[in-house]
């Protein structure tokens, strides 16, 4: 089994919470933040299982900027994160 550690975002859209894994454009939703997280985790697992079945998981993850450390795939981490304003 592959272990993936991914940076995800949770936002609210209307009455739902949306979980997004930007690195590979995988998203899911739920009625609560926890439901959105669990639903996104299931979507991530399904994505990884399908890629593994096709034999493309390492290639897909490497192209998305993941690195493998001690058997775990880690998503790229920003050196800086901030909000900018442009006029």
Helices and strands, with pairings:
Layout: E1 3-5, E2 9-13, E3 16-21, E4 26-30, H1 33-54, H2 57-63, E5 67-69, E6 72-74
Parallel strand pairs: 1-6
Antiparallel strand pairs: 2-3, 3-4, 5-6
Structure explained in plain terms:
The chain has 87 residues and is of the alpha+beta class. The protein is built from two helices and six strands. The strands form two sheets. Strands 1-6-5 form a three-stranded mixed sheet, with no helix packed on it. A hairpin with a 2-residue loop joins strand 2 and strand 3. The N and C termini lie far apart (47 Å). 10% of the residues are buried.
Biggest sheet: strands side by side, in what order? Answer: 1-6-5
Poorly predicted ranges: none
Q: Class, according to the CATH hierarchy?
A: Alpha Beta
CATH architecture: 2-Layer Sandwich
Quickly list its features.
Double Stranded RNA Binding Domain; globular; 6 strands; 2 helices; alpha+beta; three-stranded antiparallel beta sheet; three-stranded mixed beta sheet
Provide a short characterization of the protein structure.
With 87 residues, the chain is α+β, with helices and mostly antiparallel strands.
